[in-house]
Amino acid sequence: MSKKILIVDDDPNNIFALRLTLKARKYQLESCMMADEAIRILKEDKEFCVVLMDMMMPEIDGYEAIKIIRNTPEISKTPIIAVTAQAMDEDRQKCLEAGAQDYIKKPIDVDLLLNAIEKHC
Question: What are the pLDDT digits (tens) for 86-96?
Answer without folding.
Answer: 778 798 999 99
